[in-house]
Design brief:
single chain, alpha+beta, Helix Hairpins, OB fold (Dihydrolipoamide Acetyltransferase, E2P), 7-stranded antiparallel beta sheet, binds 2-(butylsulfanyl)adenosine
Length: 706
């Protein structure tokens, strides 16, 4: 059953059982679980994919019923209920606060010519009062973030309220306080209310998404979602790690700034405004592709321009409709659309074993890229958009956003289009596949595509970090049946296999020696790396580390199948507990562990782990780097020499290592008054153990195909 069918079923249950008190616990319990899944899925569509399929009203009805169940049957509340976590019912957790002045939204235009018509209308209004009225405009970039009101009393930042419905929003003061560029004290004692936008820089989103993928979390679809999701986190310390920024664009209350002072002297104002413009200049600016291009080159996401009447007196006269001011209007950059055709459909076995349909397209140019493929996501999507093979489609892509199919151009159907059917077997191993909900899964543990991905993950930087084994080597080894599981990697130390390797073009003695060295070294790595490398659903880098820290014994399977033990780990969710116990109950996984142990891979949680313990460290450090030497390598050397690593600098960090182009982390380190070591020569002088890394790195790199 797909989500819309499931939702309909749930809605009719709710309709039929309005009075919860008439239901018994058994009836409610089953329904409760279904309702949780349903709300979680809608949250995902709304917050992450930005594509809700039900109205806010319908969503509220589902959510209210969930709350009602929990009120009547508190004994069945589970920690994975969306009422217990944050996303989706944000306002439950934040107090509401009223805006003194309503935060209006802007009317959108998509066509620069419409702006000329508006200009004429405004002229007419103004000319009633002043026959020769001239209008001068200012243009600002339109930030694509989360609108917020900041309130200052006397000098001091006292409150931040999200826009909400314009009248009432969430009080996010403590979270906004963590944003570095929000002034906490003004240069003058002013009672001022300002409006601005909270944003997550594109580069930060990229980094955070990488981490989220490593942690089996869904990446943020765009910077607006990322900013909104971050500012509504419960713990300000977590918000602090999201590197949000604010840009202010408006004063909301009647306040006079000290003579000669402008908004930009007090607040972070994006310095890209143009003033004194005539409507003709505006149209030109909107239509000039260079405008969009310039904004796209910034680290912040913009989705258009905002055009404002400059004179405050004129603003008073032309003022406002119910929802929108007339003195300002948004010009939205046209979303780039292109028509193309679906030539064929492939199926891919992905990271999470889900088989994803992907359309091969007649290549088409869109937002500066040539697109040849686009994801069809799942069969629900195909059904919803009524997509057929050979259909002509509209593709859309804007800014950093991944391209997607907007609609099928049904007028251009020829009758030769055919239905896209789910595959019967896995495209890689050809074994039958399983259909659960909207997805199809390959459940064959020996599927070569999955094997390849598992091995690639196992050897990767955050797992066993095996030097010398890259993606193409993994493909070659799996395709030639030299290895079939991650444990088989350790067979590469065997002489006979090495001889076999040398037969492949591009693999020479040196390469083989590098592989063997990497494989041997990996046997002595910390257990957290192995746990991360095993590809346990919902266990990423962080969870693997938490697990490794809690384990007491080399025979850790007992602990990892003990639900009580797992549930006691801070921050672990029910889903993760279930996934871990399931993983360590499965016979093939136990066999894999046995083999790894047999090859001498470290299973001792206490070994190699001491390097990580903060209390025993010589000091703690953070690092920001853009030298040739990989950052990870430097961090690892410091860890091996007894220093504790902080991913982000905090007050408790002792020192910061800075490579070129340090950026925001350096600013943060300075703000925190951390000791800073800059430039390689200075750093090596202070930490002589780094000389080894230098000699190792100076060695000529082996030239090979891999
Ligand atoms: S001025 C009275 N200026 O765009 C309206 N808004 O609906 C004052 N936005 O959520 C808004 N950049 O938060 C203004 N430079 C800018 C802006 C801007 C982004 C947001 C605003 C609102 C949305 C439009």
């Amino acid at each position: 059953m797909n989500l819309s069918e499931q939702t309909k079923k749930i809605q009719s249950f709710i309709k039929a059982h309005h009075d919860i008190s008439k239901l018994n616990e058994k009836e409610v319990s089953d329904f409760y679980i279904q309702l949780i899944d349903c709300v979680v899925d809608h949250n995902h569509l709304y917050y992450i994919e930005n594509k809700p399929i039900i109205s806010d009203k319908e969503y509220d009805e589902l959510f209210d019923y969930l709350k009602k169940i929990e009120e009547h049957f508190p004994q069945i509340i589970t920690s994975n209920s969306p009422t217990q976590t944050l996303i989706g019912q944000v306002s439950e957790w934040f107090t509401q606060a009223k805006h003194e002045t309503k935060l209006l939204s802007l009317e959108n235009t998509y066509n620069a010519k419409d702006l000329e018509e508006r200009d004429e209308r405004i002229h007419k209004i103004l000319q009633k009062q002043e026959p020769n009225a001239k209008i001068s405009y200012r243009v600002e970039p339109k930030f694509d973030g989360l609108s917020v009101e900041l309130i200052y009393k006397k000098w001091i930042f006292t409150q931040a309220i999200t826009r909400g419905d314009g009248l009432v929003g969430d009080d996010v003061t403590e979270n906004v306080r963590t944003i570095k560029n929000v002034p906490k004290k003004l240069k003058f004692p002013l009672d001022i209310h300002v409006r601005g936008e909270i944003l997550m820089p594109k580069s930060v989103r990229k980094d955070i998404n990488k981490e989220r993928e490593e942690e089996w979390e869904v990446p943020f679809a765009n910077t607006r979602n990322a900013a909104a999701g971050s500012i509504k986190l419960l713990d300000p310390k977590e918000v602090d790690k999201r590197w949000l920024v604010v840009h202010i664009y408006d004063i909301l209350n009647d306040v006079e700034l000290p003579k000669g002072t402008k908004l930009i002297d007090l607040f972070p104002v994006f310095p890209r405004e143009k003033t004194g413009l005539h409507i003709k200049d505006i149209v030109k600016l909107c239509e000039d592709p260079a405008t969009k291009k310039m904004l796209e080159s910034k680290d912040i996401e913009f989705d258009g321009l905002v055009i404002k009447t400059e004179s405050l007196e004129q603003r008073e006269i032309i003022w406002t409709t119910d929802h929108h001011p007339r003195w300002a209007v948004a010009y939205k950059f046209p979303a780039q659309l292109a028509a193309t055709q679906i030539l064929s459909v492939d199926f891919q076995v992905g990271r999470t074993w889900i088989i994803t349909p992907v359309a091969n397209l007649e290549p088409v140019q869109l937002s500066g890229a040539t697109l040849k493929r686009v994801s069809l996501h799942n069969f629900d999507f195909i059904k919803e958009k009524d997509i057929h093979l050979h259909d002509r489609i509209w593709l859309q892509r804007s800014g950093e956003v991944i391209p997607y199919i907007v609609s099928v151009i049904t007028d251009r159907r020829t009758g030769k289009e055919t239905k896209i059917n789910p595959p019967k077997t896995c495209p890689s191993c050809h074994e039958p596949i399983t259909n659960i909900d909207i997805h199809y899964y390959c459940t064959n543990p020996h599927c070569p595509e999955k094997t390849k991905q598992q091995i690639q993950h196992f050897v990767s930087k955050h797992c066993m970090d095996i030097n010398g084994i890259g993606e193409s080597l993994v493909d070659l080894l799996v395709e030639n049946k030299i290895i079939a599981t991650v444990a088989d990697i350790y067979k590469l130390s065997d002489n006979k296999i090495q001889v076999q390797l040398l037969k492949f073009p591009g693999i020479w003695d040196k390469k083989v020696a590098e592989i063997v060295k990497g494989v041997e070294e990996s046997k002595h790595k910390a257990l957290r790396r192995l746990l991360n490398g095993l590809w346990i659903p919902h266990v990423g880098k962080k969870m693997a580390q938490d697990l490794a820290e809690q384990l007491t014994h080399e025979d850790f399977v007992k602990e990892l199948t003990n639900e009580e033990f797992l549930s006691s780990i801070y921050g672990i969710g029910e889903k993760t507990v279930e996934s871990i116990t399931k993983f360590f109950h499965a016979k093939h996984n136990l066999k894999l562990l046995e083999q790894l142990k047999h090859y001498g891979v470290n299973m001792n949680p206490k070994k190699y782990y001491d390097l990580l313990k903060a209390s025993e460290a010589k000091g703690s450090f953070s690092i920001t780097w853009s030298f040739d030497l990989p950052r990870e390598k430097i961090a690892e050397y410091f860890q091996q020499n007894g220093y504790f690593f902080h991913e982000q600098p905090t007050k408790t960090t002792d020192f910061m290592l800075i490579g070129e182009k340090a950026g925001s982390k350096k600013a943060k380190a300075q703000e925190l008054w951390l000791k800073i070591y800059e430039w390689w020569e200075t750093i090596v002088k202070h930490f002589p153990f780094l000389k080894d890394i230098q000699t190792e790195w100076a060695k000529p790199k082996t030239q090979s195909l891999f």
